Amino acid sequence: MSRRRARSPRAHERYVPRWPLLAGALALLLVALVGGYTGGLLVSGGDQPDESEMTTASGILVQPPGAPEAEEPAEEPSEEEVVHPAGLDPALVYALQNVHGGRVMDVAGTSTANGAPVHLWDRHDQTNQQWRFIPVDGGFYEIEGVGSGKLLEIPADPAAQPGAAMLTRTGSPNQHWSLIEVGPGVVRLVNRATGQALEAQGGAPDNGTTIAQAPDGGHAHQQWRLLPVG
Fold it and tell me: For the Ricin B lectin domain, which residue ranges apply (predicted)?
């Protein structure tokens, strides 16, 4: 029986060990794993961009977790609108027409002196028949004569001067008037100090009738129509 001889390697065939290839593949895999792990740490760790920067860059504002809520700005108190009676506008100048006789309140003789009396007269719209209403506290008004700049008042001593008169501003209640609305553009003028109403004395409608005070009875000669001048 013949014995088979072992085949010797051919000249072009060489033995190549495989463990270096496996080692290289393992090394690449290890590098990939370590790189991915390190990248995850960078994203989740201290190198993470500031949240406010991220949200600003993206155009979306997100409040950071745990931050106090922003306080809304306090609303400024709105000014209350003052409602004047009978459509009165303090910026305007008025003639005061007595409802009973149709004549208007007039400073006698166009006087500008303290103590000048006030009476009824035909309307001519001169400054001694023009009146301005100036708001004061408590919803009352001063009634200022345009011709003199003095105020309509009930004298402190009605016995010495029975009718209404003009006097320099003192701030006293006898120079303050409440406007009681009767109808559109019509009021009663009630004095703050006395509680009595301004009237054409005795209900007379004539020129020269004294304008004085009397208990408020709501009569036509105690009613005054507000007529804007100009």
Answer: 91-227
Rounded CA-CA distance 69/112 in Å is 66
User: How far apart, in whole angstroms, are the C-alpha atoms of residue 196 and residue 177?
Assistant: 10
Which domain does 32 fall in, by range?
A: 19-46
Average pLDDT of the residues in 216-228: 97
Return the H-helix or E-strand segment holding 153: strand 151-153
Q: Are 116 and 190 in a shared domain?
A: yes
User: How confident is the model at residue 23, as a pLDDT?
Assistant: 63
The pair of three-digit structure tokens given for residue 116, joined into one six-digit string: 């000048």
**130 and 32, same structural domain?**
no
Q: Residue 199 is encoded by which pair of tokens?
A: 């009237």
In angstroms, the CA 22 to CA 81 distance is: 91
**Is the C-alpha dihedral spanning 225, 95, 164, 204 positive or negative?**
negative
Q: What is the pLDDT of residue 191?
A: 98
Q: Do 221 and 147 fall into the same domain?
A: yes
- Residues 53-102 pLDDT 10s: 444 444 555 555 665 666 776 666 455 667 888 889 999 999 999 999 99
